[in-house]
Amino acid sequence: MVQRFSRGDEQAFNALYREYYRPLRYYLYKVVGDDQEAADIVSESMLKLWKQREGFTRREEVKSFLYTVAHRSALNALRDRKRHAAKEAELAATIEATGHRNFFDQLVLTEFLAQVTDEVEKLPPGQRDVFKLTYFDGLDTDEIAEALGLSQAAVYTNRKRALDALKLRFGQADPLFLLIFIKLFES
């Protein structure tokens, strides 16, 4: 079956998927503590397996590849979670230090970030992915390039285009929103 999979046989891949999905998901759940995140990592790992299918000759190689890729992805997810929590704590500390903890300020910021999120979803896929990984997940250029399979130049270009498009949209909507956007994402 592994030889058929290696040659691109989708039925063989489906059989391997069924064989490894549950144990891999269980393993990842133990690592990341979130069932949906574990399922997502399994799916991504299976996709990577399919893309790298040529050259596998034994089941042990497939299993080793899957667990290695999945384990690395799980560790990255945990690191990203920690980084995101640190960014939230930093933002909370900044808000507290500047004395802007009143309800109205929080409401405006929450509303604004919801609008940013909506506008980001309208960006072309490359720009959207780079923007999210940069500003929502806190990844640096090298990490984004590796995660998306892009060059650093492509990451810079997509980030700049995303920022330019969003500045244009917010500038047309309300100059105050444009100022808030620039303060949050370009400082």
Main attributes of the structure:
187 residues; mainly alpha; 9 helices; 0% strand; elongated
What do these coordinates show?
This protein has 187 residues and is mainly alpha-helical. It contains nine helices and no strands. Helix 3 packs across helix 4 and helix 8 runs antiparallel to helix 9. The radius of gyration is 21 Å and the shape is elongated. The mean pLDDT is 83.
Topology, element by element:
Elements: H1 2-6, H2 10-32, H3 35-51, H4 59-97, H5 103-121, H6 125-136, H7 141-148, H8 152-173, H9 175-185
- The SSE string, one letter per element, is HHHHHHHHH
What does the radius of gyration come to? Answer: 21 Å
Determine the oligomeric state from the structure. single chain
Mean pLDDT equals 83
Cα-to-Cα separation, first versus last residue: 54 Å
Query: Biggest β-sheet, characterized?
Result: none
Sheet/helix structural class:
mainly alpha
Globular, elongated, flat, extended or rod-shaped: what is the shape? Answer: elongated
Strand content: under 5%
Low-confidence stretches: none
**What's the helix count?**
9
The percent range for helix content is over 70%
Work out the number of β strands: 0
Can you describe this structure in just a few lines?
With 187 residues, the chain is mainly alpha-helical. The protein contains 9 helices and no strands.
